[in-house]
Amino acid sequence: MKKPRANRDSSDNAIEVPDTGIQDKLEREIGPLIQNGKRKEIISRVQKVIAEEHFSGPLPPPKYLTDYEAILPGAAERIFLMAEKAQIHSAEMDKIIVQAQIDDQKRGMNYGLAALLIILTMAAYFGYCAINLMNL
Question: pLDDT for 46-66, tens place per residue?
Answer without folding.
Answer: 766 665 667 777 888 888 888
